[in-house]
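Protocol step 4 of 5: obtain the predicted structure for the target chain.
Materials: sequence only (see below). No template structures provided, no constraints applied. The aim of this step is simply to have a reference model before the mutagenesis design in step 5. Sequence pasted as it appears in the construct record:
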Amino acid sequence: MAPVEQDALAVREQLFHERVRECIICALLFASLYILCHFIITHFKKHTDFTGVHDDEDAAVNRIALGLCTFTLAVALGAVLLLPFSIISNEVLLSFPQNYYIQWLNGSLIHGLWNLVFLFSNMSLVFLMPFAYFFTESEGFAGSKKGIMARVYETSVVLLLLTLLVLGMVWVASAIVGNDAASRQSLYDLWEYYLPYLYSCISLFGVLLLLLCTPFGLSIMFTVTGKLLVKPRLLEDLDEQLSCTRFEEAAVSHRI
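Step 4 output (structure tokens):
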């Protein structure tokens, strides 16, 4: 084998090992987030929502919906933590550039995490969350055999009809606003245009909701903290306490 072919084979093997390592790291990170989100949801949900159902079919449906909601929450938490993780990993690599044990925090891993978060976010928004909602509300088509698959068929049909309805409304709105070839061609570019636009709009609404709710939450937090904490004696005014004591003594003497 020629030296050039050996070098190319070595480079391919190195790239393959790096891809496998990145996949393992991404899987471990997502598994950790999924377990954390599962504990969070099971802590805050009602006990009778998923475990107290007497029907085995309803219990299985609720468990599937719980898994989908946990997956979506894990993706959302990963999207929130991805930017701090990118900044911290960059600072660690700049601080220890020669350390072998932290070289896995490279740009390829961060880029892969961003792509996975974007993919799973759109999948959760477009498919998983509507599917979980319609799946818990479904009962199967009339006359069909009862079971999990009947609910899956009904949920799939309802979700398909909803997708067609939304696409039809978008098509009509696009035809009303701009009835040209460019606007009609942009409707076919779903992955490159509409999904990033949908992701950006939902992120914008989330940021606005956070800005709206954060001041009230902080004010309530400081109010509750002020009620729970005891005022230290070093900050008390002794002259004011003495004058209040004298007034109370004079009032008691006047009553006597």
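Step 4 remarks: The CA atoms of residues 56 and 62 lie 10 Å apart. The chain has three domains: 1-49+56-135, 138-172, 178-249.
Proceed to step 5.
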